[in-house]
Amino acid sequence: MEREFKNKEYKRIAQKFQPKRAILRNIIVSFLVGGFICSIGQLILNYFLIQGMPFKEASGLTSGIMVALGALLTGLGIYDELGKFAGAGSAIPITGFANSMVSPALEFKREGFVFGVGAKMFSIAGPVIVYGSISAIIVAWLSLLLK
Amino acid sequence: MAKNKAGQQTFVFAQKPFILSMAATVGPKEGAGPLADYFDVLLPDDILGEQSWEKAEKKMLLQTIRLALEKNELEEKEIDYLVAGDLLNQIITASFTARELAIPFLGIYGACSTMAESLALASCLIAGGFANKIVAASCSHNCTAERQYRGPTELGMQLTPTSQCTVTGAGAAVVSLQGSGPKIDCATIGKVIDLGIKDPSDMGTAMAPAAADTLLQHFADTGRKPDYYDLILTGDLATVGSNILKELMQKSGVPLGENYNDSGMMIFTKKQGVNAGGSGCGCISAVTCGYVYKKLLQGELKKVLIIGTGALLSPTSYQQKESIPGIAHAVSIEGGH
Lengths: 147, 337
What we know:
- The complex is a heterodimer.
- Chain A is mostly helical.
- Chain A contains 8 helices and no strands.
- Chain A has helices at 2-15, 23-50, 55-75, 79-86, 88-91, 94-107, 113-120, 125-146.
- The longest helix of chain A has 28 residues, at 23-50.
- Chain A is extended.
- Chain B is 34% helix and 23% strand.
- Chain B has helices spanning 28-31, 53-70, 92-100, 114-127, 142-149, 203-222, 238-251, 263-266, 281-298, 315-319, and strands at residues 5-6, 10-12, 18-26, 41-42, 81-86, 105-107, 133-140, 164-166, 169-176, 183-188, 231-234, 260-262, 277-279, 303-311, 326-334.
- In chain B, strands 1-2-10-15-14-11-12 form a 7-stranded mixed β-sheet, with helices on both faces.
- Chains A and B meet through helix 1, helix 4, helix 5 and helix 6 of A and helix 6 and helix 7 of B.
């Protein structure tokens, strides 16, 4: 009981000295950077559409190019700096997904291709795939039921 | 009665061990910081031509220990024991360094308090008559710590303003029964204190209560007051933790004055994008073995209290929602002349 009080009391004292996250700044920056990345994707997509490519193929190819760009920028050591600056703005677009796969692949290459690259590559992207698939299934069922 | 004990938790050395030499190495980011002139070696890059960050960290510690020996023209066989530790799992940096050295090895772990712990233990072994010369050393590497505690180094993540940047740096000290130079006067061993802080990106808040507890005990055990020292230097509380420490000391009736500083705040400037400041074993190791040692030799500092502060968490413990236990050890060093 006494310990509980002490912990609460300490949190209250400590709070005064903990700088707050710049939430407004972070939201604005992530909106702008995220929007910029998506605009690049849109430009590429539009280019393919103008060339007469069917939408399905064009969108697949666009995603592929964005993933390749994200991977390249990760390898060049630029994407982590962008991430520090833009937060969710660079993490949420598909380029961020590429970063979350390529960065562990690079990092754990030293532990070998099986237990390093192979096992660790999905250490960050894995949960996204798992819960993304589960959400997709739930939404699919719901939409089927509501029809 | 233990003849070398004062109060509850303090070793007082009847025969004060000498620090024959200290050597400090830092990485490129630390080398671009305000204390660059005080370090012996500024590394040009993080990898040092090695195959992995871990191997680079080992190379850095090994070179730093060898440099500390060279400064006194000592050979490895003249050293009785090596007391060293680092941040990596199973303290591989320290033990793999010891593999290269012909020195009997005691590996220790106190998270970022390791340098203070190694100096305190080395002093005990010497004052107790168990050894003539001991090397005490500790180090950390930004990239090895990053991949062990957080995520891949190239992962694009936004950090919170309370987060700290692990220092790439190493410090080594040759502690001796005979000789000249600064002396280790006493050391206070801290308790593990945990006030329920769970945020692993706010270790300053997690460690500040341990630092306050050890400091208060040190002053109680020795009868000294904060103004006894020219410098009271904590390890890596950084801006958040050191402000909390000052507040806790104020509330306990032992306010810290202008002579208080924190290694994590000294080693980087705010412009270097490190949020709250530096952290890691290498932080206080490099600042003590670089800055403090040179100031002691120059006579600008005469009495210094260094307080290594460690957050005793692991990735497993915080993923299991455990709070972060803190520890702090204080070592008092006196100028030689």
